[in-house]
Amino acid sequence: MKQIATYILLLITTVSFAQEKDKEQLLALKKANNYVYEGNSLIQEDDFVSAEMAYRKAISEQPSTVAGIYNLGSSYIKKGNFDEALYRLQEAAESATSKAEKHKAFHNIGNVLMQNKKCKEAVEAFKSALRNDPADDETRYNLGLAKVCAEQQKQDQKDDNKDDENKDNKDNKDENKDQKENDDKKDKDEDNKDEDKKDEGDQDKKEGEDEKDDEGKPKDEKEDKGKGDEEKKDQQQPKPQPGQMSPQQMKNLLEAMNNQEQKVQEKMNAEKMKGVKIQTDKDW
Known about the structure:
83% of the residues lie in helices and 0% in strands. It has helices spanning 2-44, 48-61, 66-79, 82-95, 99-115, 119-132, 137-210, 219-236, 247-274.
């Protein structure tokens, strides 16, 4: 009996606690809805600052309230703060529990992405919105615009890549042209250097020809040959042995004797004419 009474008391306490908690949640939800309503009114009056504060109070009272998060994101869209709007709308899409709430969140996410020129991502957002509400013609129309935009951006990207490639090819051609001009200049310099060497060789050849005689032989060689012939002639003449006269000495001696004999003959002829006889001695 005592245990039954304890169980009943515990059950009553639990039910009371649950009811109390439900009351708090209902009160928080009511306050959140009131702040959302206040924010919507401020938005209509173009008071974006006060409206943002009202929506933030709604989220603080009931963090899971989709209306507060969604409306806050929408207020950022009207202010032109697309980055913050995108963040809040993505948060609303994750917190949404119904298809209607998810559809609205993804639809506006697509619009924000289009504003940011992210057309490819916008296509996926509008597709997610249509999965939750396939009958929405506005979402379907926006999806078509996003697809056209995405294709155009893809084509522009290809054109940019092609322009970059053409620019790189042009730069390579200019570089090759400069290299060719440098090579041609180098070859021309080498040709001029070879031509200078050839001119120097022709000059040396001409100077060498000037040193040749009429027979085409080098003058120095002819002079050396003449000296060699004289030396050879001297070597061919027999050298006198010790105690003997050379042929030249004998020739000179004979000439001297002939001259002496001629003088003696002339003297004798002169004596005969006088009648006086003289005796001659031989010199050799």
